[in-house]
Amino acid sequence: xxxxxxxxxxxxxxxxxxxxxxxxxxxxxxxxxxxxxxxxxxxxxxxxxxxxxxxxxxxxxxxxxxxxxxxxxxxxxxxxxxxxxxxxxxxxxxxxxxxxxxxxxxxxxxxxxxxxxxxxxxxxxxxxxxxxxxxxxxxxxxxxxxxxxxxxxxxxxxxxxxxxxxxxxxxxxxxxxxxxxxxxxxxxxxxxxxxxxxxxxxxxxxxxxxxxxxxxxxxxxxxxxxxxxxxxxxxxxxxxxxxxxxxxxxxxxxxxxxxxxxxxxxxxxxxxxxxxxxxxxxxxxxxxxxxxxxxxxxxxxxxxxxxxxxxxxxxxxxxxxxxxxxxxxxxxxxxxxxxxxxxxxxxxxxxxxxxxxxxxxxxxxxxxxxxxxxxxxxxxxxxxxxxxxxxxxxxxxxx
Length: 399
Fold this sequence. Notes:
Helix content is 39%, strand content 13%.
């Protein structure tokens, strides 16, 4: 089978990139042919045979000319259609697997794939993995950047809500463009041309289903996670947070609780804008950014991982990786987090943003090592999809 992976970024940048790189490499190991299409970038690590990529669109460091043309190019890209056509003609894929494409590549590439299919007579399935809520929420987070509150107004009403709330970078101009993009492509019915939409959580599937063009195409496949073999680690007395140090991840609420529990040792792993606040706490050890075996050892040694998110998480690796390495999770009851925790067995939940509840649950588990040890033991029996298992399910989607 020939699979063309499409993603705006073809360099390490976030979760969607990790997904396409790991899945693409696995498919190649299984004997399939895989090529990639997206933006050109100096850090690009994958590509296609004809070296066809769109020019890099940097919204934060763009020239004046680029900023003037971006409003049109973020809605419809002639360049993306021309470049992906070169790849289609050369590679002749059986599946085009879309990931993050809005604003930089634009849905215009979907039109080009279908045009190419009709002109060549070569059947090609278009599969889309939704890494966020972009297709139903122009700012993709379902969170207002001005108020910090979660928001589903665009799902329940009109994309004009994005403009009213200045939901894209708190900018009126950017929010207008984002709303226009969503309105334009939904009126065109472009998403009806997708064969399947993969949602990594039931929560996101429900939100995407608010769009009737997506509803009947959605398949729920929780993310795959690969366990790295490490030597058995003895538990140490600390509670772990790992991830981005930012408000939407619940850091400010967690720090409020940390201040009330000076006798509890916390270990933080990651980076982000709230790092200075973290470093000012005496009972927090900040290990900075870790990955690979170094990170997995820290996870395995913790008695508990806290995931205090205040945004609609999709299928967070922090929850899966913690349990995979034998560490129970205290997670916020928001987004896709509850789907991954067996309450009273592999972890507990608390109301997102509720510092009092968070404090109570931390004290309960910290003061009950027997319960924590039982939860840790139960985590060993939790089964998340490996790449092998994920591929078994994905084959049916690819057709």
